[in-house]
């Protein structure tokens, strides 16, 4: 082999390694992008659930307060003066 063919062989090997590294990084990026999209969807779902539960809790609190007020009116109306 000549020095020139050795140089081309080394260059070819380096280019092959570069292409493999690029392909690997591209695949990893695709996988991470898909994972991120999944997490974003999960986050959106959880935010919606938290908002729903907060509203439901507020509704329950309002109902309990109204019931307590009714009980207070009933008990204060029936107490002797």
Notes on the protein architecture:
- The chain is mainly alpha-helical.
- It is built from one helix and no strands.
- It has one helix spanning 3-78.
- The model has no long low-confidence stretch (mean pLDDT 93).
Lay out the secondary structure.
Elements: H1 3-78
- What's the mean pLDDT score? 93
**How helix-rich are the residues, as a percent range?**
over 70%
The secondary structure category is: mainly alpha
Distance between the termini: 117 Å
Overall 3D form: rod-shaped
Strand content: under 5%
> Could you name the ranges where pLDDT drops below 50 across 5 or more consecutive residues?
none
Provide the gyration radius in Å. 35 Å
List the keywords.
single chain, 81 residues, rod-shaped, 1 helix, mainly alpha, 0% strand, 94% helix
